[in-house]
Specification:
The complex is a heterodimer. Chain A is built from four helices and 22 strands. The radius of gyration of chain A is 19 Å and the shape is globular. Chain B is mostly beta strands. Chain B starts with 5 loop residues before the first helix and ends with a strand. Chain B has two domains: 160 residues, Immunoglobulin-like; 151 residues, Cupredoxins -  blue copper proteins (Immunoglobulin-like), CATH 2.60.40. The chains are: A mainly beta, B mainly beta.
Chain lengths: 305, 341
């Protein structure tokens, strides 16, 4: 399940400022371990995974790191798994060296521009990432506003969608047993948003877009998988705010389907302009299912009240 | 299901009447089966069974049994502020899966209609044995849309239950304008609808919650229902006059990555201008020589032909969803159109 653990910058609330940054220090500790990810419902299975977690139990996707622009961020990654791993926040950190089994490493950086970032283990030709070692870092604007960035579009609700796939028989089962994965062949049979099959994601309050009339949801899409994913929203078009960290010129383009390539991000603003219940799903054939079972794949719901 | 259309609301308020010639366009659609002989990389054709929509409006009785099913189905053109009323009769044993995926719907993809018009059985009450669908596109919503069945989409869309709806601007007399939207800079002399789709024959014989649907291996690649595997045997052709403008409407009903380009006889990519994506005019039109179109997307664009006679080849390259280690996406196949001028 998806959990965030944002640390609140006390300086901001103490002084009640909005215009200037009082950068806080944010400390995170992540543990790498082997674990499992259950996809429930028809077609589901328990997937063997490796993941980052705030305890000895890894979660997939990894914990959401929420910080403010300009914060000093210190992340300690402790590798309690039995092979090498690493930790890279794409476009933010640069140390690609391995953390040996039983070792740990510290990463310190100043939080970059407000936006959505993806972090992962980049070792072993995508095997470590495919096994579940990926997550999102969300950087908020310093002024505490509910905007995508200072001066950017405002929102009422926020969703973070980490989209991914797993090839259970050819990758997860093999790697978990300590064997070498044939990375030339990748036929993922599980497709997830926030580590959930569609049957769960369509009822998960953190994943669903939910809102009342005339409110807006900022949807942060992070593709941590190896497939391009084309996400189609029913019910309304959205405004395309940023693509891979590049803020788009205004007025924003309005689409109803967005392609998010592997290891990239996109931020869109979805307005609740009518009432009703609508799906949001990846429009690619096999991505809609769990091992072939329809709708237990990369899908969630839009609940407009 | 019927709904209060915007045209009715506008009419009640006495608004918009000065320039709106809102028509009601009624269509009756049915479903039928058909087969296509497809070749892919083989020299031996393979017969693949499809399900397609048909226009059965002439058959009376809601069109039961009328019309010939095609893939893609009938392309519908409507004007801004027109009301499209589709009466849909999906009955036919040849084109049914067993429960829970029996029946069919029409999803008006991109139309942002009310839930009851959206054709999604999981949200609209499961009216899969016949329904009506109503849509009144507003001004500013010109462009290409699509419709497809939303029952067990992984199977039914793949089977061929799809086509395009084109929303066009109209003049004061209610006649279609040959321009992409209300802006005269989008005027064109010719237009072509390129409907992108891919075919994995295993999906055509599997049904229900089969593990077959966990892995997509397309072997046939279509442009508006045809293979068009070479410039010598294009899927779509257009004979145009020199120096004129040609509009292309790209409608993404495929299940892979795809890139559209227009190449001349020497293989050099030619510029075109994208004015509309997903039925919304871009704030800034974009002139490019290549456009990626992912599953579910649409684009409306215009190219200007040179003033000397030649032949151009608009083309779709279908690509895998997973990149090579160098970040490029390996191509499955390229499907060609042809414009002579």
């Amino acid at each position: 399940m998806y959990k965030s653990f944002a640390l609140i910058g006390l300086t901001l609330t103490l002084f009640g400022v909005t215009e200037s940054a009082f950068a806080a220090t944010q400390n995170f500790t992540l543990y790498i371990n082997a674990g499992t990810l259950p996809i429930t419902g028809n077609g589901g299975a328990t997937l063997n995974v490796w993941g980052y977690g705030t305890t000895a139990v890894p979660v997939v996707p990894a914990p959401q790191l929420t910080v403010n622009e300009g914060d000093t961020v210190n992340i300690t990654v402790i590798n309690n798994h039995n092979i090498n791993h690493n930790f890279i926040i794409k476009n933010v950190t640069t140390d690609t060296s391995a953390i040996a089994a039983g070792a740990s490493k510290n990463y310190s950086f100043t939080a970059p521009a407000a936006g959505s970032y993806v972090y992962s283990d980049t070792l072993d030709s995508n095997v470590n990432r495919e096994m579940g070692l990926y997550g999102a870092m969300i950087v908020k604007p310093t002024d505490g506003s509910q905007t995508a960035w200072i001066g950017g579009p405002a929102y009422d609700h926020e969703n973070v969608w980490v989209v991914s796939e797993m090839d259970k028989p050819r990758w997860n089962d093999i790697a978990a047993a300590g064997f070498v994965v044939d990375t030339a062949t990748y036929k993922p049979n599980y497709f997830m948003i926030n580590g959930l099959g569609g049957f769960d994601a369509m009822m998960d309050m953190d994943t669903m877009i939910m809102g009342t009339l005339n409110t807006k949801s900022l949807v942060r899409i992070v593709n941590a998988g190896q497939f391009s994913h084309s996400l189609h929203f029913h019910g309304n078009h959205f405004q395309v705010l940023s693509i891979n960290g590049v803020r788009q010129p205004t007025p924003f383009e309005q689409w109803d389907t967005i392609n998010v390539p592997p290891m990239s991000t996109a931020e869109v603003l979805y307005s609740i302009n009518q009432t009703g219940h609508y799906p949001m799903h990846v429009h690619t054939a096999q991505a809609e299912g769990a091992n072939g079972v329809y709708l237990n794949g990369a899908a969630t719901m839009i609940d407009m009240q | 299901m019927k709904k209060l259309t915007q045209a009715i609301i506008l009419g009640a308020l006495g608004l918009g009447a000065q320039h709106v010639h809102a028509a009601t366009i009624s269509k009756s659609l049915c479903v039928g089966s058909l087969s296509k002989t497809l070749y892919g990389t083989s020299t031996t054709g393979k017969s693949v069974t499809f399900w397609g929509y048909s226009d059965c409006g002439g058959g009376g009785m809601g069109g039961m049994g009328g019309g010939t099913a095609t893939v893609p189905g009938p392309i519908m053109e409507i004007g801004v502020n027109d009301t499209l009323n589709i009466s849909f009769s999906p009955m036919g044993m040849m084109t049914m899966e067993g429960a829970p995926y029996n029946g069919h719907t029409i999803h008006l993809h991109g139309a942002d209609v009310q839930t009851m018009e959206d054709g999604v059985p999981e949200t609209n009450g499961n009216m899969v044995m016949g329904d009506t669908y109503t849509w009144t596109p507003s001004a500013g919503h010109e462009g290409s849309y699509m419709y497809h069945c939303h029952v067990h989409t992984v199977k039914h869309l793949e089977m061929g239950m799809y086509s395009a709806i084109i929303v066009r601007p109209k003049n004061a007399s209610g006649a279609f304008l040959n321009q992409l939207n209300a802006n005269t800079t989008t005027a064109y002399d010719y237009s072509q609808n390129y409907i992108l789709s891919t075919v994995d024959p295993a999906y055509h014989t599997a049904s229900g919650d089969s593990v077959v649907f966990a892995d997509y291996n397309p072997s046939y690649f279509l442009m508006t229902g045809k293979e068009g595997k070479s410039t010598a045997a294009p899927a779509m052709t257009l004979a145009a006059a020199k120096g004129k403008k040609v509009a292309f409407r790209l409608v993404g009903l495929h299940s892979t990555n795809a890139t559209f380009q227009i190449k001349n006889g020497s293989g050099v990519a030619q510029p075109f201008t994208v004015y509309i994506r997903d039925g919304r005019t871009l704030p800034t039109a974009k002139t490019v020589t290549s456009l990626d179109l992912s599953p579910g997307q649409r684009a409306d664009l215009i190219t200007t032909l040179p003033t000397t006679s030649s032949t151009w080849y608009p083309q779709i390259t279908y690509k895998k969803l997973r990149a090579n280690t160098d970040g490029t996406y390996p191509a499955y196949a390229t499907v060609y159109g042809k414009v002579t001028f």
